[in-house]
Amino acid sequence: MNDNLHAEDPKPDDSLAIAVRDMDINDLAPVYHLGEMLFTSDLYPFIYRTWDQWEVIGLYNTDPEYCLVAESDGKLAGFVLGTIINKATWTYGYILWLGVNPEFQRRGVADNLVDRLVERMIDDGARFMMADTDPENLPAVKFFTRKGFNNVRRHVFLSMNLSKHEYYGKLIAYEREKADRAVWKRPRRPSKT
Q: In which domain, by residue range, is 83 found?
């Protein structure tokens, strides 16, 4: 799960009304741009590479019931994007992305989003809920622990630069040779007889 939480506990603010609702088509761009602002390469080098507009559009198209936004006075306060995974004997709820606008952090936005998503997934038969985050994101780990997620495990993430792989170099060389061999021939005009 990819999230950007910098708060452990919400701070009370009675003047702030947070409304959680289903994400709609008009929310796609604002959610994407908020995620783009939150999931940066300096904070989350690997998550940054997976956050793109297709993440938002894809989940909105496949799992719209698990795509929620929080707003206050018409301003996007945060979002949660989730999915249901059905296995033979279990149905799992999975929080894929959770982001809170920095202007609204420590105000219960993430709590409201996760609570609503958990309720919805329970209604839809989920018996188990999953979330993951970068183990260095201690505020997120503390947040999910406070929300009742437990059994914390570290996950090893490995990567490989394929441009340095032997096959990649062979493929590039082959494509260059193929391009060099290709000779463009102008089509002949039909003869006038």
A: 2-160
Whether 37 maps to a domain, the answer reads yes
Domain annotation covers residue 193: no
The per-residue pLDDT for range 75-91, each reduced to its tens digit, is 999 999 999 999 988 99
Residues 6+ apart with CB under 8 A from 83: 59, 62, 63, 66, 93, 94, 96
Q: Provide the 3-class DSSP secondary structure of residue 133.
A: coil
Better pLDDT: 5 or 188: 188
**CA within 13 Å, CB half, 137:** 26
| Cβ–Cβ under 8 Å, residues 126 and 162 | no
Q: What is the pLDDT of residues 131-148, one digit of tens each?
A: 988 788 888 899 999 999
